[in-house]
Amino acid sequence: MELYTAIQLPKPPFRFSWQEHTLLLGSCFAENIGTKLAENRFNVDINPFGTLYNPASIAAALRRLLHPERFTSNDLFRHEGVFHSFTHHSRFSSTSETECLENINDRLFASAGELRETKYIVVTLGTAYVYRLKSTGEVVANCHKLPEKMFDRSMLSVAEIVSEWKELLLSLWEQCPELKILFTVSPIRHWKDGAHGNQLSKATLLLAVNTLQTTYPERIAYFPAYEIMMDELRDYRFYANDMLHPSELAVDYIWQRFTENFLSDETKGFLKEWAEIQKAINHRPFQPESEAYKRFISQTLLKMERINEKFPSFDSTKEMEIIKSKLM
Known about the structure:
Layout: E1 21-26, H1 28-39, E2 43-46, H2 55-66, E3 76-79, E4 82-85, H3 97-115, E5 118-125, E6 129-133, E7 139-140, E8 151-155, H4 158-175, E9 180-185, H5 195-215, E10 220-222, H6 225-232, H7 248-262, H8 265-282, H9 291-310, H10 317-325
Parallel strand pairs: 1-2, 1-5, 5-9, 9-10
Antiparallel strand pairs: 3-4, 6-7, 6-8
């Protein structure tokens, strides 16, 4: 008896390898999955502009990475003693203009320098609604709590999203011909849009992504994080206290579904061995002086030596030092 509606994941046109560089951009769900990848020693760059929600702002960030130009004081504004950028999340904001620009530009050029070596980009779209600054007509990535009267709010159409992203993708593939793109739609509901408005927004994103994916089926894939949350995890026990964000358990489950379908066999094998080592590193013994625990540590060191032999590019120096310190 089936007690829930399982989401069937189609065979993807490509699979991720832990050794290849991956760039993640988008909503806070991109951060959730990016953190999981980083914990499992993937080579990742997570949100170099901070958390972004709408397709236009994410596209603008990618264009800036493709053609990096240094941000200047003209790109900042000051509000209540803090300097902000309309292109960035507030994590880059600072009471010092110099510090704000240093944070922004250091991150920009570090990520831009890695873009041409990037094999995969994961884009997580949060909402189709955008805010435009009335004085310029510019779509902002973050309003930084400025008065609502300064902005015009509207929803992007499917055609607008597809048109902008087609042009961007062709530019990306011109510079990075082997680049693969994975789109997801964030499972986090934007309740400020209202229940109906949120559904319209998500539907717009889904239609736009589907158009792009069917246009470039070998280069673009879709992972149904939104559908998994809405169907397989529809119970409120899978939500955080705000009843909008996925709980830690839900993120773990969606991560499991992602690894089952989108990782290469070699990477799955690596993750299995690495999980055993992580468990050993985090283990807290009742009797750290016992011979049994010393044998356990020695066996863990042997496992690490074997994983280094099997995956020569894997650097476990830090973890080896942690394990060896437990023998002292």
